[in-house]
């Protein structure tokens, strides 16, 4: 996954590029890699806009709050299985595999 730039930084990159400053110089001034500068300029020429496109893919089933709760339950009792954690999350209808994925995302070594 690449770096996400806000609109102001993208505008600054294009402004500096149009004023004749080299990409390497822009990268040093903004403390970004040259590839990020190059990609921003290329996408601007291609789309004629700096606005990011909507992201693709299915939305997450869990919210950040539920993710934190799963992590907390696992750290309170390291021997708790994903089935037990799912049972403790009665208000949310998620699967066991979702619980396991969230535990893996938190770099939790004990996923059962």
Quaternary state of this entry equals single chain
The chain-level structural class is mainly alpha
Number of alpha- plus pi-helical segments: 6
Mean pLDDT: 88
Q: State the domain count.
A: 2
Could you characterize the architecture of this molecule?
- The longest helix has 14 residues, at 34-47.
- This protein folds into two domains: 7-47, Arc Repressor Mutant, subunit A (Orthogonal Bundle), CATH 1.10.10; 64-105.
- The protein is 57% helix and 0% strand.
- By secondary structure, the chain is mainly alpha-helical.
- The relative contact order is 0.11.
- It has helices at 7-18, 23-30, 34-47, 64-76, 82-88, 96-105.
In short:
It is found in: Nucleus. The protein has 112 residues and is mainly α.
Highlighted features:
2 domains, 6 helices, mainly alpha, Arc Repressor Mutant, subunit A, 112 residues
